[in-house]
Amino acid sequence: MKKQFFKNRRAKYGGISLLLTVLLLVCVLLANTLVGTLASRYGWAVDLHSEQTFPVGEKSVALVKTALDAAGTADAPATVQIHFCDRPEKLEAGELISYLYATAKEFAAREGRIQLVYHDIFLDPESVAGYLTSTTIDPETGAETETEITLQTTSVIVTCGAYHRTYSAREFFQWESGNSSSPTAYAGEKKLAAAILRAAAPSSPVACLTNNHGEVYYDYEILYLLDDAGYRLDYIDLTQSVIPAECSLIVCFNPNNDLAQKNAISEISEKEILDEFLSVPGHALLVFLENRTPNLPNLDSYLAEWGIAPCYASGESANYRYMIRDEMGSLTSDGYTIAGKANTKGTAGELTSGISHEPIFSNASGFRVASGFLPAEDGSYQKDDRRASVVYTSGNNAVAFANGKAVDTTPVGLLGYSEQTLSGGVSRVAVVFSVNYATEQWMQPGAYGNADVLLRLTETMSGQANVGGLASVAFPSSVMHGLSRAQRLGWTLALTLTPAVIVAAVAVPVLLRRKHD
């Protein structure tokens, strides 16, 4: 019977057709599985229903409740009002504002101390007469100032007591770098929670940004993140001004001039100023450097005292800062945009735990743990009362270049964190060895962990919970983030060759069989 079946031409080709169908179905299932895994890993997963929903999570409600509890008392509870500048029916029909309106309604429904207020700014402009100024961030200095504004129907005003601040609807979305026409994700839960936290605690801690070292900002995304983290912002020249008493964080972003030191002309030592500042529990220093940062021996030696020693290679006439390159692991063709590899042990593990996406370090330099810091059981390095941790490192295939030559093939640290034990608490220093790390290109897309890592760092440094960990919801997009050059090449080859291999595997035996028949 079996021989008769294979001698029957129709039965034979019917069986081959069935086999091809089964193989096709198996390929489709495998492709779905692979794409689903990649979508989850790299943030490609989107809700393709005609109407996306953005429920408010338990964490954001808990954050808001805690802030309102701290801001008020049983006899005089704190109340936050969210003012909209249009009627409810217009808000529900709006293109962007409708998303935010739905989120605000859910916050108000779940926390009775949040109230929604509606204004018609055209028919009743007097109702918003008290909100024609707003706290804004001056991007040139980082300082918060009161600025006159023009309200739009999509403006949102968050108030608590005498405090008020106006936001545009655009601020509650994420945008692709260089593209302001269509949002890539909705960040309304995170941003509105941050706005409510700020309103409930207007006397929040201050972050001072230094401005006396030739600091250069490629954009101002770091200022917006510090604002979301709950800091009021100010700028400071450490050689000219006294650090404000309410300042708990000093940020030195992309310095190009060294720390001042005592000499025959000046009695000012910025190292001594920083030492005094960091002798107070709860105070912290955050520094951003890159592979184009010039030699800064005073700053570098100060960071080494905290266990974070920037890497240099010695040349004939100068020392050259490391430039970290991973040709196949890079997200860009030049090899200088790499993903950080998380350390999961000890304090570093606490800082990276729950961060679902790798942070991206572009134009990165690197560091080693400084001499004299000895390994501890939890993966950190101890010297006297200071303990340093390597939070993120370069990959195994990364190579350090200096002065145009490959000088080191051993992974280096990309983000370092150090704590100093004090009576009554700890002070902290963190160094990110990439300035581009904190730019819009890598902070905005939800496919990268850059913003989440910085929010976790600032939360640890300030000791106050912030909106880190609140996810943005991606909109449908044709852009795929997070694939390295090697991964792109691998997937291109796989998608190109797999169909050909399957067809050949099935067709060749059939052709040979037909030839012999």
Could you please describe the fold and organization of this structure?
- This protein is α+β, with helices and mostly antiparallel strands and about 525 residues long.
- The protein folds into 3 domains: about 1-45 and about 480-515, no CATH class; about 55-205 and about 465-480, no CATH class; about 205-465, Rossmann fold (3-Layer(aba) Sandwich).
- About 30% of the residues lie in helices and about 25% in strands.
- The protein is built from 13 helices and 28 strands.
- The strands form 8 sheets. Strands 9, 10, 11, 12, 18, 21, 22, 23, 26 and 27 form a 10-stranded mixed β-sheet that branches. It has a 4-stranded mixed β-sheet with strand order 2-1-5-6.
- Helix 3 runs parallel beside helix 6.
